[in-house]
Each structure stands twice: as C-alpha cells, then as structure tokens.
Amino acid sequence: MSHAVEVKGLYDCRDAWVKTLVDVAANDPRVVAVVNDSVGSSKLGAFQKAYPDRLINVGIAEQVMVGVGAGLANGGQVPFVSAAACFLTGRALEQVKADVAYANFNVKLVGQSSGVAYAELGPTHHSIEDFAWMRLLKTITTVVPADPWEVEQAIRWAAQHEGPVFIRLSRMPVPALDIPDRTFTPGKAQVAREGSDVTIIACGTITHLAIAAHDLLAAEGISARVLNMHTINPLDEAAIDAAAQTGAIVTAEEAHLRGGLGGAVAEYTAGHRPVPVERLGFDGFQPTGDLDHLFTRSGLTIEGIAAAAKRAMARKVGSGK
What we know:
By secondary structure, the chain is of the alpha/beta class. It is about 35% helix and about 20% strand.
C-alpha cells in the first residue's frame, strides 16, 4: 500500500480508545458512553461488558444521540458520544451546534472511521467535511490523534477537561510514531522532525506519511520540518509562525482542502506570515474506491508529500521560480 507502511506494526486506534475509556470509567463513575446502534463499529464491546448500565444505545438516531449526550452532561455526567464521523458531524450537526457548542456542555464527541476509512461505501460515508464544520464551533476543542499513544492521551485529557471536545478517530491502521520527548498538550503542535528548508504540517492518519516524506527528502539533501498538528481547534498559531520561518509550508490531511487544516494554515499565513503553502487533501466528493486509490489520486502518499514540499520550496521568495 502506498499510503501506509507494511501491515506488521500497524494499530487500529479504536482499540486504544476503548481500552482507555474503560480505564478512565473505572476511576470516574460519571463517565458514560452514548451510541447510535454502533457498539461494534465503535469497538465498545469491552466497555459494555464492564459497565452495562453506563452504555446508552439510542438506535439509529444521531440527533437524539447528541441531545441525550447534552442532557447527561447537563445532569453532571461525562458522556462520550460515539458514532461514525460522517453521521455524527453531518446528520446531527444542528444538535452539535446548538446542544453542545452553543450550550457549552461537557460532551465528548468521538467521530469513528473518519476521513475516507469507509472508502468503498462512497461519499455518503466519507467524512472529509468535518474539520471545516467543527472549526466554526470555537467552543469545541477538536483533536485528531495520529497513533494509539495519542489516542490514549486525548481520551484521558478529554475525560478530565471541562468543556465540549471532538475527537476524530480512524479505523485505518497506523504505526506508532517515533517522536522524541513526546508530550500531548491540546492546542500545541508536536515537532515530529526538525528541518529548515520547508515545513510539513500533518495530522491524524497522514502524520506517519509526513515523517516518511521527511526521510525521503533528507536522502535528497532537503531538510524538512514535520509538525504533528493534532489539534485543529484551537490552532497552534505560534507553531505556524515558526513553520513560516522555513520559507515554505505543506499541509497534508485526510480531509477536504476547503476549510480544513490546510485552509486554516493558509488563512493564518495570508494574514500574518505570507509564505507559499501547498495543500494536500481531498477536493470535493471522492469516488467509490479502495483507500490506496483515494489517497494516491490526491497526493496523500510519501512521494506525493515530498513532491509538494519541492513545489513549495520552488515558490519561495528569492527562489527564482
């Protein structure tokens, strides 16, 4: 597969999510789970077994599900509302806006199988618009974990954080990232690799590809900085300022180009630190097809990210291009 590494050493982040949720629930009786007939796809079987009275299945009724979550939060519980990201953020967007974001209730929204993880099911099941929608709801902290370690950190943080959170998870297997001196602080990007010629800003399932692109570029004498921008809202503007100092930026995300991470970075740099920005992601509805095809056609491969870095560098001020 060109969009990932070999199968050995890959992890389903949903396993880390449920293991962590079971653990935090053991220490906090307020933690409950609310689902839309998605116990299986949310991998909440272990939670249901451990706490059968703390899992609420509303059936295929996503708007009701979010409303129930808001009601539970208003009653002092800490609800983790879990559903396929495409339905959680699309079908129930009004409730997410009014019942969670506007009310500023302590609801933890967990979007499962995000991006194009449901590749063969087509645009109705792709969730590539969610970044754009959630970025507008400023009260909701939006986190996109890149690997199992980050999933665990995000869930533990969300459980104790007072306020609404959206955590975007994928069913696509990813490797555990090798990031030195790693810490997780919402709103603060991680420097995954140092570099000075160009900065690659990635999130979620694309972060390991960006790190691999760094290695590919290094073999060609190009020094690429890699940022793991695990929080989309609030955005780490200081990290973008530092990225702009390399003179060129690439953004890469498993989301729509309009309004997502790339859009956010381009908005900020245009107003504060103008530099060339090459954006990689999906542009409009994607066809039905396997993951490899969808990633490759949009440049979301190791080679595609490296090529975008070279394009961005060629646009640098003084490059002569």
